[in-house]
Write a structure and sequence with these properties.
By secondary structure, this protein is of the alpha+beta class. The chain folds into three domains: about 190 residues, no CATH class; about 90 residues, Helix Hairpins (Orthogonal Bundle), CATH 1.10.287; about 150 residues, Heat Shock Protein 90. Helix content is about 60%, strand content about 15%. The strands form three sheets. It has a five-stranded mixed β-sheet with strand order 6-8-9-11-10, covered by helices on one side. A four-stranded antiparallel β-sheet has the order 2-1-4-3, sandwiched between helices. Helix 1 packs across helix 2. The longest helix is centred in the middle third of the chain and has 52 residues. The mean pLDDT is about 90. The structure holds adenosine-5'-diphosphate. The site of adenosine-5'-diphosphate (ADP) has 22 residues, from helix 9 and helix 12.
Length: about 500
């Protein structure tokens, strides 16, 4: 029993030891894999790291090229010198000494020349200080000798006493090769030292370059509707990142403006709706208290509630129209028709509902337009209604129509209160009413011109306005036409 327990313990120990051993062996591999994955992750996500790595690789390539060029350049230069000085001297000596073999062998004692072989016209070996059997002027043989034996084989035909021979001179170039290797190593070592200086500079510079992007990301993350006025810092040098920040800031300006005007619109609209609701509530209270028995109160209250409900309905319809235009769900039912059709209708209706002003309608010619008839009529009505609202009784209102260039122009001129210069650019804003008209009890929510603008622009038209305070206003509605016609009534 005891023996079995002991055996089990030993097995357990061996198991633990094996596990520890394996994890020790695997540890460097794990570290390496972790390092590679970390590197790949950084390469994927960090531009600064990408720039540093690119520079690092470029630097190494340049150093390798420099090392290669300098060491090989040195070797080629020295070999050329060798050819020009030593070899020519040795050839002359050989020409003098041959066939005195002793003298030729003496040439080998001093200097780099290791062996001399001579061949006849048919390249048969006739003399060699070594065991050479082949005449070798083949570049591959020369390179083989250079690499494996560190020897330079010089082969050439020569003339000795009017006879042609071929020679092989073997020179030892071991010291030259070692010098070239030393130069190579020197350049590589200096390159490595340079790298130690270069790497931190490159990585710092690239992080500095990318810094503004990080900053932009951080700031952009913090922007919400509550701090929509936050902007990126665009101080510093003029570069692409500054342009980007500036463009971003300009975009934020536009978004902020849009957001603010939207908020303003919602608050103004709520305000507009509060008044009729308050009035209705007041009358309902009145009805509750006295209206059950008092017929006059009952009638007055019903009249007022009816009025305010209609007012509210009108406002809500206008708001819905604008909302549909914002959501781009507003549709036009366009057709070809003669503009005189609606102009003459408007003339008739206007004269029927208003007998307090002096109207002049003059349509010089007619034109076919491709448009939504009801919407165009609605838009023209808005200008005429305004002219009626803001022109005192007995004042003149002129409505004319004619073609000019590519447009049919409907001009609505009045002799009313006019619009101040400062208000001219704002009257087409939603819920905007000029000071003068607000004090006048003429009704209106300041939505008419916004709606007219949506309709006219939706038909690729234009609106022009001129006004003089106290004298009157002139609105020109310009609608592109298809065909010009003469007016037939
Ligand atoms: P409203 O329903 O208040 O008339 P509009 O959008 O049609 O709203 O007009 C906006 C404002 O422009 C008016 O409140 C008024 O101050 C000014 N306005 C428009 N037309 C005229 C006009 N013919 N004469 C003077 N002021 C005008």
């Amino acid at each position: 029993m005891k023996k079995v327990k002991k055996k089990n313990n030993i097995l357990k120990l061996i198991k633990i030891l094996m596990k520890t051993l394996i994890s020790i062996i695997l540890y460097p591999i794990k570290l390496f894999v972790k390092f590679i994955f970390g590197l790949l992750k950084r390469l994927k996500f960090s531009i600064a790291f990408k720039i540093s790595t690119t520079y690092f690789i470029l630097y190494i390539v340049v150093i390798l090229i420099v090392a290669f060029i300098t060491s090989n350049g040195y070797f080629i230069f020295e070999m050329n010198k060798f050819n020009d000085e030593i070899i020519i001297e040795d050839i002359t000596k050989l020409q003098d000494y041959y066939p005195d073999k002793k003298k030729v062998e003496n040439m080998l004692v001093k200097g780099k020349l290791k062996s001399v072989s001579m061949y006849d016209r048919n390249l048969n070996l006739i003399y060699s200080t070594d065991k050479e059997t082949r005449y070798s002027d083949n570049i591959i043989v020369i390179l083989e000798n250079l690499i494996y034996n560190k020897e330079y084989v010089f082969s050439s035909p020569i003339e000795i006493e009017n006879s042609r021979y071929y020679i092989n001179f073997h020179y030892s170039v071991e010291d030259l090769i070692y010098d070239a290797i030393r130069i190579n190593a020197l350049v590589l070592i200096s390159g490595a030292f340079g790298l130690i200086l270069f790497l931190p500079i490159v990585s710092r510079t690239s992080y500095k370059l990318i810094g503004p992007i990080k900053n932009m990301t951080e700031i952009t993350k913090t922007i919400t509707v509550n701090n929509i006025n936050t902007r990126l810092d665009i101080k510093g040098t003029q570069d692409e990142l500054k342009d980007l920040s500036q463009t971003f800031n300009e975009m934020m300006d536009r978004i902020e403006d849009g957001y603010k005007s939207q908020q303003q619109f919602v608050s103004d609209a709520s305000h507009e709706l509060r008044t009729p609701i308050a009035v209705i509530k007041g009358y309902v209270n009145m009805l509750d208290r006295w209206g059950k028995n008092d017929k006059d109160v009952l009638e007055e209250s019903i009249g007022a509630i009816k009025n305010e409900t209609e007012n509210m309905q009108d406002l809500i319809e206008k708001l819905l129209f604008i909302a549909r235009s914002d959501k781009q769900t507003l549709t036009y039912t366009k057709e070809d028709f003669k503009i005189s059709e609606i102009l003459l209708e408007i003339e008739k209706e206007t004269k029927m509902i208003d007998n307090k002003h002096k109207f002049y309608f003059k349509f010089y010619n007619d034109a076919s337009i491709y448009a939504d008839k009801n919407r165009i009529k609605q838009a023209v009505r808005i200008f005429i209604d305004n002219a009626m609202k803001f022109t005192p009784e007995k004042g003149y209102i002129m409505v004319s129509g004619y073609t000019q260039n590519d447009y049919y122009i409907i001009k609505v001129e009045d002799t009313g209160i006019g619009i101040e210069k400062k208000d001219l650019s704002k009257i087409f804003d939603r819920l905007y009413r000029a000071e003068q008209s607000r004090s006048k009890e003429v009704g209106g929510h300041g939505l008419g011109l916004s709606i007219a603008k949506i309709i006219i622009l939706g038909h690729k038209g234009k609106i022009k306005v001129k006004s003089t305070v106290g004298k009157g206003s002139e609105f020109s509605i310009m609608i592109p036409y298809l065909e010009k016609n003469s007016l037939q009534i």
